[in-house]
Amino acid sequence: MTHYDLVVIGTGSGNTIVNRRFADRKVAIVERGTFGGTCLNVGCIPTKMFVHAADVAATPSESARYGIDEELLGVRWPDVRDRIFGRIDPIAAGGSEYRHHDPDNANVTVYDGTGRFTGFKELTVDNKDGSMSVFSADQFVLATGSRPIVPPIPGLEETGFHTSNTVMRLEELPRRLAIIGSGFVAAEFAHVFASFGVEVTIVARSNLLLRHEDSELAAAYTKIAQELYDVRLNHETIRVERRNDGSILVGMLNPDGADELIVDELLIAVGREPNSDLLNLAATGVEVDSEARVVVDEYQQTTVDGIYALGDVTTPHQLKHVANHEARVVKHNLLNPDDRIEADHRFVPHAVFSAPQIASVGLTEEEAKERGIPYVKAVERYADIAYGWAMEDTTGFAKILADPKTGQIIGAHIMGPQAPTLIQPIIQAMSFELDAYAMARGQYWIHPAMPELIENALLKLDLHPEG
Ligand SMILES: Cc1cc2nc3c(=O)[nH]c(=O)nc-3n(C[C@H](O)[C@H](O)[C@H](O)COP(=O)(O)OP(=O)(O)OC[C@H]3O[C@@H](n4cnc5c(N)ncnc54)[C@H](O)[C@@H]3O)c2cc1C
Ligand SMILES: NC(=O)c1ccc[n+]([C@@H]2O[C@H](COP(=O)([O-])OP(=O)(O)OC[C@H]3O[C@@H](n4cnc5c(N)ncnc54)[C@H](O)[C@@H]3O)[C@@H](O)[C@H]2O)c1
């Protein structure tokens, strides 16, 4: 049986591990899908390219109040789609070609197929060409990501539906789109398709969209979404059916009774589950938790010595910057077994690239209350800082929570223009333990730039640095 020093399963963030520092090791890389994984092919990158195009398409709806009259003459969907994938697909193909054939990878063997453990540290790959390979290794990296959850809604399979994996490659724009789910994917695709002129309905089981956000922010976002899209809150989807004319009937139940909706396409966006089941982990003794996530310690090592895991297959934060961070930790620990480093999950931020944009880090106010953590809070509206006032923003705000004794920021939640960028100095302050007052007063803030939103929110916190 062939034996490797290292086997990496999954080429999302897992693919970033192997470089020239592994040149003296015999390495195998296993990939069952498209090289580059979720973020590049069906996740962060194409979605944000669509979001940018959607932002451009949405400008006429905003511009008249500034005295600029614009008109959206049309959205050439095939051109929008093909520009995006015409740039992405060659990157994926190039990544595969590099690993398969570049002399840099003389020590690397690529298996295009699905890996599963068939013994302790023994992997069997069902190759796409129909052959099977069996090999062993001293070390493994499990980087197999996650996939969209498909809920057991009667009629769904027969009717046909899209997930984030397929909806970006639609042949044509539908007239009407229903999105089942109310999280990140729902918020981003509602913005994209509605900006392109599609009638979007969001079917949400809960009473709020983005309900994992701070509740003040989720409520404000939900209110805006209700003005932009048809939002059905507290609606459980109970059946879907393809009608004779090709349209789709969505049957729902809400507290007042039954409800129905007719659309042309359906997007399922109810979360993602880890790809741990495909790996038959029991055969090698790697444990998973109750949500099928691979259990790891602070070094990203699984319950088996020498088998590491990273990204969506292990973390509850299904985010690319987390997968990348964990990949760096795993890489270091593979190269330096006697001087390993721990992963840092203290302040994991996220952003939703919807309209408006949202960004968040640390505790929500509800979490602080539930955990009995004392806090002071401040809310600053975009309308009250110069640039937001100039834009005549009426809905955006930043909310910051801080420890009343130390002034350390414990949470920040922003909704409005540039939110994912504005939050970065707060992440920095939290990571390097800079207190709110020192952060506000220990540096210049460019006037009249948008970060004054953060400066003012910090200064509003009821902290008394000078007694
Ligand atoms: C629509 C969408 C938008 C997103 N936008 C953002 C964003 O803006 N910002 C952000 O931070 N995150 C975003 N994410 C999340 C981000 O894409 C993921 O957190 C990240 O890509 C996870 O990386 P990974 O390396 O863990 O897994 P992946 O990139 O999914 O890589 C796993 C790879 O393993 C392969 N594989 C699985 N099982 C096997 C097996 N048994 N054998 C061989 N190969 C296998 C898969 O084919 C896949 O290529 C988005 C996700 C989606 C779906
Ligand atoms: N900008 C970003 O960083 C970004 C963008 C897209 C996706 N992602 C990642 O991908 C993950 C998956 O995104 P997502 O939007 O699919 O999941 P999500 O977890 O963000 O939201 C799913 C929502 O669907 C609801 N839901 C669950 N089952 C349901 C059902 N049967 N019917 C109706 N609603 C149901 C859940 O309560 C939840 O509110 C995210 O959690 C995120 O980590 C990140």
From TrEMBL:
Keyword DNA-binding attributed: no
Binding-site positions, NAD(+): G181, S182, G183, F184, V185, A186, A187, E188, G271
Cofactor annotation remark: Binds 1 FAD per subunit.
Keywords linked to the UniProt accession: Disulfide bond, FAD, Flavoprotein, NAD, NADP, Nucleotide-binding, Oxidoreductase, Redox-active center
Entry annotation: catalytic residues: H447
Domain Pyridine nucleotide-disulphide oxidoreductase dimerisation: 348-457
Tree of life domain: Bacteria
Matching Gene3D superfamilies: 3.30.390.30, FAD/NAD(P)-binding domain
An annotated Gene Ontology molecular function: NAD(P)H dehydrogenase (quinone) activity
Cofactor entry: FAD
Signal as UniProt keyword: no
SUPFAM superfamilies: FAD/NAD(P)-binding domain, FAD/NAD-linked reductases, dimerisation (C-terminal) domain
PANTHER family, A to Z: MERCURIC REDUCTASE (PTHR43014), PYRIDINE NUCLEOTIDE-DISULFIDE OXIDOREDUCTASE RCLA-RELATED (PTHR43014:SF4)
Entry's family note: Belongs to the class-I pyridine nucleotide-disulfide oxidoreductase family.
Stated name of the protein: Mycothione reductase
Species lineage: Bacteria, Bacillati, Actinomycetota, Actinomycetes, Propionibacteriales
